[in-house]
Amino acid sequence: MTFFFWSLFLSTIMSLVVLVMVFRALRVNQERRNRIAMGYLAPVALTGLFLALMLSLTVPRLLDTVNLLTETYAIEEIQVGRQNLGWNSLTASGRRYFYNQWQIVLEPGKQYRIEYTPRSGYLVRATLIETAVVNSRNLAIQDEGNGAVP
Fold first, then answer.
1. Of all residues in the chain, what percent carry a pLDDT higher than 90?
2. 107 and 124 share a domain?
3. Does residue 48 sit in the same domain as residue 92?
4. pTM for this structure?
5. What is the dihedral of CA 98, 103, 107, 113, to 10 degrees?
């Protein structure tokens, strides 16, 4: 949960810094102190950057704060592969999930039940799904996860 709140804090700080830059660029335009002609378009570009930051990072995290505090998460079962596992992100079913790699350890080739915040895709919990396979003679049950026969 600390990872989520740090990312919320950093995205809010980034958004506020860009907003301050927008106001400074507007003030420079109003006082006609631009040194280059393209400087007049700085507020437009910075406003676009501000909106992109707010819509992709800050607002989803702010809305998911309620889900995190009330512990109401979305649940999904996913197969983790080597190609969809990043340093602190997981891509599955066309969606990207973020997680704290020191808290949640995901192994490629295994199936997990994940609990995540619905808007920002922050993984709260990942539970390994154990599957048992019975051979054709029903003599032994083999755990598919580690290959051991009980």
1. 61
2. yes
3. no
4. 0.74
5. -70
